[in-house]
User: Fold this.
Amino acid sequence: MRIPLEWLREFVAVPADASEVAHKLTMIGLEVEAVENLDNDVVFEVNVTPNRPDCLSVIGIARELSAVYNTPLEFPDHDILAETGELDFNVDILDKELCHRYAGRIVKNLRLGASPEWLRNRLEKCNIRSINNIVDITNYVLLELGHPLHAFDLGTIKGRRIRIGTPNTVKGKGAKVVIKTIDGVDHEMPGESLLIWDEKRPIAVAGVMGGHETEVSDSTKDIFIESAYFDPASVRRTSKALGLKTESSFRFERGTDIKMLKKALDRAAYLMKTVAGGDIHGKIDIYPKRYRPAAIIVRYERVNEILGLRLTKKDMLNCLNGLGFEIETLPDRLKIKPPAYRRDIKMEADVIEEIVRIYGYDRIPAQLPKATIGTEGNELKVRSNIKQAFLKSGFTEVINYSFMGIHDIDMLGIDEKDERRNSVRIKNPLRAEDSLMRTTLIPSMIKNLVHNVAHGNKELRLFETAKVFIGRNENSGLPDEREHLAALYYKEKVKALYKDETHDFYIVKGIIEAVFNELKIYDYSFIRSSEPFLHSGQSADIFIMDEKVGYVGSVSPAVIDVLDIKAHKPAVVVMELDIDKLMPYTMQVVKYRALPKYPHVERDTALVVDSSIEASAIVAWLKSYASDMIEDIHIFDVYQGKNIPEGKKSIAFNVRYRAAGRTLKDEEVDALHKSLVDYILDKTNGQLRQ
Assistant:
């Protein structure tokens, strides 16, 4: 909305220049999007949010500035000093739920013509085209006071009667009602749309647009000015149904000030008498549904608790006094009734927002948020990070029942001494297959797999986080509850033009490494697993430091055969992590290290060692070698087969060397690398691969 500063200053003596006024308006929630210098005046382009229809006017903006600067608000002249004759006119509100108040005045003997220059200039600054002095005044009052008015040519109103009702009320349901609006378009009206009628016909669409047959024309001498309050929802429905958007509908559908309409009516009549020389006659004001605001209790303590301030009762009252609230002060609270133009104020939090708006958001001191004491907040974040890491890797979260049967444990081949056989039995299970509480999540994931494959799904990435229940605690007698995460990866092997050589086991292993990286866990390793339901050559237990926190691996062919999955060479990889064991190692401190200035040197070496030696053990021995020039070590190849003796395997590793303060020479790198290789050969009792 465009607001001239010169016009604002007629309502409130703002002790500031245009730039400061624009800043103040923006800080209290009325964003000034543009400032334009025009004809020795400044025009603000103000973005008014939908919940603040009271600010769709000059007086609304002035009222806000009055509160901010604690300056009195001056209302424009509108008093009618003398009225001529009685109002020989009848008004009936037929739909009182849609029209809460209707007022009107008759002004006779008007001299219709061009508007004076001051009036045209103000309208033009607000991007409204001048039409004639009567219509211009209704537009002027709309901008000034925020309440839409409509002027009817009195001579065209039949029967000297106004009725306010819907077609369903006036004509009966199903009756066809057509009205031509002032834009010359015929509209067939919906039965529930509110219309203004005379004795015989509709003459205006309430709150949206006037009718063509009663509009003010060059021959108009006498007019009837309408000022009403229409239900916002009704106006919104009608405007949308007809596809008509006007300045009036824009305000009515957001809610106007039901108490302002009388002042707007008198202000328009006053200006018409001043500008067009009319005779003001009596007025009618029917008010069937009065505005009665509900009281809102605002606690002083709650205000400061929410805002983080130490405002006194006086400070709060200073912020609210200029906003038009009816305030009753009590020892520990305020009892507030909002004015009719602030129907958005409905609860204590709304009033607190008004206090801080006027007090100034920029006056609230900046401070760091309170940190969570203990590990509870960190644990919640870790659990969320784990889920997000799997979701980002393309996995879908599933939720299964917390039950299993003894046959599930038997299918996995779990040993009798394994704690996962120490399960909690349900006294009254619905069926034998669900008679135990889960001690592992893997059986549920396998059931998800069988169900999906049976329905034709050829690729699955599923994960679940849930509690498992193992045995009974000696002290409490309750089962030991642990939070686990399980995941399943399945991809049916089919013929394709593009062949991906990456084994499914390494895909899932890479996802685990990505999750650990997300959680800032670095001291982990993978050791060959002995889980009976996993493939012996494609599985690993997951260790952090020296503690086992889970496992990952391809499901063994024996289990796949039991499942009877009818697919071509199915590859199923599962994993399970004990989140409770994982938690102490998460969110490790990350230390900053500047990017190296000097180049690195790499050396590759292949050893032939006993096949029983794990690659992870070799990495551990390599990392234990004392040297500050070894930057990184990783294994890039493990091979058994042709040219490698029986019971042996080849392990190739890469070592990266770098010095912090200089460039390394080949001779010293060669010497250091030879010493490292000798060290690892001694540890493994191996030999260099030729």
About this structure: The longest strand covers residues 480-492. The chain has 20 helices and 30 strands. Residues 376-585 form a domain with the BirA Bifunctional Protein; domain 2 fold (CATH 3.30.930.10).
